Structures are given as structure tokens and as C-alpha cells.
Amino acid sequence: MKRAVIVGAGIAGLATALRLARDGWRTVVVERAPARRSSGYLVNLLGPGYDAAERLGLLPALSAHDLGLFTTVLVRADGRPKFTVPSAIAEAALGARAVSVFRGDLESTLYDAVRDHTEIRFGTTVAAVQQDTDDVRVVLSDGSTEHADLLVGADGVHSATRTAVFGSGFRVDLPYVVGAFPLAHPVAGVPQSSATTFIGPGRTAAIVNLGPNRSSAFFTYRCTDPADELRRGPVDALGAAFGDLGGGVPDAIRHLGKDPAGAYFDAVSQVVMARWSTGRVVLLGDAAWCVTLFAGHGAALALAGADRLGASLRRHADDIPAALAGWESELRPEAAKRQLLARRGMLQYAPPSRLHVWAGDLTIRAITLPGIRGLVRRGIARANR
Prior knowledge:
Strand order of the largest sheet: 5-4-13-14-15-12-16
Largest sheet: 7 strands, mixed
CATH superfamily of the largest domain: FAD/NAD(P)-binding domain
Number of domains: 2
Number of helices: 13
Shape: globular
Distance between the termini: 35 Å
Radius of gyration: 21 Å
Strand content: 25-35%
CATH topology of the largest domain: FAD/NAD(P)-binding domain
Structural class: alpha/beta
CATH class of the largest domain: Alpha Beta
């Protein structure tokens, strides 16, 4: 029986464990966090991500968490509406083969699917890695040593596996910060079954109100020193950057103050590497390619990457380096495309000026026109092939 050690119990790591376990591998997942974590931002699984979720058998469980379609209201700084984007626009953009869930629900679905088929060790990190042509030896912080055929680093954009095996210098930090967190209860000023979005120069604030435990907040803004923002913490940093806004924003930030540890709050970074593997060690997900939240396909790429890795390992049988090389050549063009789209998307989420905000509003208004909707659907379909 082949053995794999997987570092990281997020989407990429759990999906990899699920796919390999179904192919007969013995898998061990190590996670530095002491327990499972959840975060509240919304992810869309479409294209290759939806296909992978289907092949992994996740769709029946995910359907119970599907957020469905909802109206988006573009608002001014004080919360007054500018115009409404009907749910039909999202339907045109996403297409029939799509599911929208909160990231935490996707991780929970993966965990439930794989927990009886893998060993998961929380509060555990990798202390050392050694490999030769026959196996890879992974020394863990609990004092144990795992001998495996494959080590998968799926430990995110700040991957310790990447640093230990490949060195440093692959993370490209961008001058933006993102904050996202779940809302146990809807906040005032956001209509039921809708999202309100404020887009202003250098920042975006979005509040989703889909009922208790189905609501969330998302913030992003441009800044000169992301590291300084992170030192301030999410409550102070987001309060300073968005404290002048109305609508549901003040209530959302007050909610955050009650549980700041439940927020995702980080600088925006991409990972750019010439190779994602060496010998029997491979990086997957944000550890390898991080497209950023601006791309909107991070979760989908993680699922697709895990599923395709399993398929390549099966095709190449005992030749693991060849399997990893073939997998990377297939997936790399998609990751590169998403990274490029994310860099362009920064103008959407953090427009440089009021002129850019105005131009963006015009574009969104145009998309709402019935004659344009079909063009949007066909354009999205081409992008997600």
C-alpha cells in the first residue's frame, strides 16, 4: 500500500487525502492548528472545480449548504442603494453546473467524507524532511517519523513545507489586505436574501444576508504596508479602513469584535514557482500557486488539483516523479491564467480612483441589460473551460 503524508487540513489537503484514500493509499494529514477552523467567505465551485467535486462524491452533501442565487445591491458610502443586480445575472455567470457555499461548509464536507479514511493529527507540524529515490522521511513535531512514498505540502500561502524543501522567495506580496468572517446573525441595513456591496477608491465592503449562520462579511483594501495592518489586528485595521461607511458595515465590524479569532485576515499574496515538485515532494493549492481571493477560483483549483493529482498518480503507477511532472504540466496553464485574472481583478475590488469606480458602475449596469446577459454567459463559459 502506498503511503502519503499531507501537510495541511484545509480544502487542498483534505481533498488530496480523500482522492488518494479512494485510490488505496494510506494517508496521514498533519495540521498545525489545534482544531478545525472555519471561515466565512463565499466560494463558487464551477468548471473544473465543480467537475472535481462531482468525481469526489461531494455534491450531495454540498447541496445542503448551497447558498443559491441572491440579489446584489451596489450601495453608496452611507448605505443608500445605487442600483440592484438581479440574481439572474449570477445565474448567467455561474451556469447550471455550479454550487456556491461558504468555505467553512466546504471544509466540513471534505472532513466528513475523509475522516474515516485517513489519520488527521492536529497541533502537529513538520520538523524535517529527507528523501531519496525510494521514499521520503518526514519527522513530525510530536517526535514521530513517517516513511512515505509522497509528501504533499498543502499548507497554504505561508507554507512551511515550501520553505523547508524549496527555500524562500516565491511569495509575491501585493499591497492589499483581505478580511472575511461569518456572521451568526444578519446585520441591520442589509435586506434579507441579498448582498450589499460598496466599492470605492481603494476598497470594497460586502455583506451577505442569507439568514442566521448563512451570512458573512468581506472586506478588502489597498494599503502601503500590509504587515503593519496585520499587526494591528482585524478589528482595529478594518475599523480604521471602513469605519466611515454606513449600511451593514458598522454592525459587521461590531460583530467581529466579539470573535476576532474567527476571521480570515491576511495580506494578499500570490505564489510564483518554476516547479511545484522535487523528487517525492509536491506542493498543491495555495502553497504552490495561490491565485488570491481576487481570482475567485482558489477553492475550485484546489479541488481540481487534488483530483487530477490522484489521476496522474494512478496513470503512472510507481513512477511518482513522472506522475508529478505530468500533473503539473496539465494544471499549470490554468493556475497561470487565474493569477493573471486576479491581477486584473484588483482594479475591480480596489479601484485606483473615483473615475475607475464610475467606469466599473457603468460596466455592471451594462451587464444587467437583457441583451448583454447572454454574452456574459458565453464569456464565462469560455473562461471556465
